[in-house]
Amino acid sequence: MEVLAPIVETLGAYVVDGGTDVGIMRMMGAARTQIGAKFALVGVTPESKVALPNHSETAANLIPLEPNHTHFVLVPGNNWGDESPWISCVATILANDAPSMTLLLNGGKITFKDAFCSVDSGRLVIVIAGSGRTADILADALRGKASDERAIKLAKSGTLQYIDLLDIEKGVENLGKVIKGLLSN
Fold first, then answer.
1. What is the rounded CA–CA span in Å between residue 90 and residue 95?
2. Contact, 26 vs 2, CB < 8 A?
3. pTM, two decimal places
4. Which of 35, 116, 144, 160 is the most buried (most CB within 10 A)?
5. CA separation, residue 43 to residues 97, 113, 163, 164 (Å)
6. pLDDT string in tens for the chain (185-residue length)
7. Coil, strand or helix: which one is 123?
8. Phi, then psi, of 166 in degrees rounded to 5
9. Checking DSSP bridges between strand 71-75 and strand 15-17, what pairing results, if any?
10. Are 130 and 136 in contact (CB under 8 A)?
11. CB within 8 A of 182, min separation 6: which ones?
């Protein structure tokens, strides 16, 4: 709410994520609404995994869509992670040759797939060290301290950078500078 959403709004950029009402996707939707932003917030998710609004038959294992997103792209697939190449593709299309980046916070095993898709499309991946799980594994790989083969391969790609949020004040300031600098070009 204090950094990312205001920058995206100022730049008139798009945000593309998984679109479900959990984790960072929920936080991004809430931040967009709380600051009264108008930027497009696009959720890309497997249709078979989400509870669609106004559908009377909703299975208990379906995840709701995040209500503050402006658009959704429902893609084929029966598993979480099937959306990963689609997220990257939608981001590339919306960028339309303008600079774009992937911001990686926390995350689980699917986050590795998301990162590989971004790297494969030549998109810079900014890893937020100190945000937990996959992000911290990748930051360790970038520091040369990893044993996870996926993290080592991603670190060697040359398209990952990390910002350490352990020093919150400096980390947030650096994150804002990196995002503005990259997306303003």
1. 8
2. no
3. 0.89
4. 160
5. 21, 17, 25, 27
6. 888 899 899 889 999 999 999 999 999 999 999 999 999 999 999 999 998 877 666 677 899 999 999 999 999 999 999 999 999 999 999 999 988 999 999 999 999 999 999 999 999 999 999 899 999 999 999 999 978 999 999 999 999 998 887 665 565 667 777 777 777 65
7. coil
8. -60, -35
9. unpaired
10. yes
11. 99, 101, 124
Tokens 């809430």 identify what position? 30
Provide the token pair at 151. Answer: 């993290």
Class of residue 27 by CB neighbours under 10 A (exposed 0-12, middle 13-18, buried 19+): middle
Give dist(CA 133, CA 146) in Å, integer: 13
Largest Cα span, the chain: 51
Of 104, 23, 102, 19, nearest in space to 68 by CA: 19
Q: Are strands 71-75 and 160-164 parallel, antiparallel or unpaired?
A: unpaired
Alpha-carbon torsion, ordered 76, 104, 92, 82, to 10 deg: -10
**Which positions ≥6 away from 171 have C-beta within 8 Å?**
128, 130, 163, 164, 165
Q: Which two tokens stand for residue 51?
A: 């509870």
Specify whether the CB–CB gap between 73 and 86 falls below 8 A: yes
Tell me the sheet residues that pair with 20: 65
